[in-house]
Amino acid sequence: MATAKLGFKKPLSKEEKIVKKKERLAAIGNSPGLKFSIHDTALYLTIVLEFRNQLFDLESQLSLQSIA
Fold it and tell me: For the chain, what is the HEC assignment?
């Protein structure tokens, strides 16, 4: 039976760390699920804010009608 040497991996060099970081960022940036998720969230927030503004307008109109 072969024996394996157990221990820690050797630390990455500065250049290797930079390459790893760029690979991680590229993987995140190329993720279609993430892009759609951000787009959908922005669209949802736009719709919610527009609805809120319309609601405030209606409330102000109703309060003006009740005063008159």
Answer: CCCCCCCCCCCCCHHHHHHHHHHHHHHHHCCHHHHHHHHHHHHHHHHHHHHHHHHHHHHHHHHHHHHC
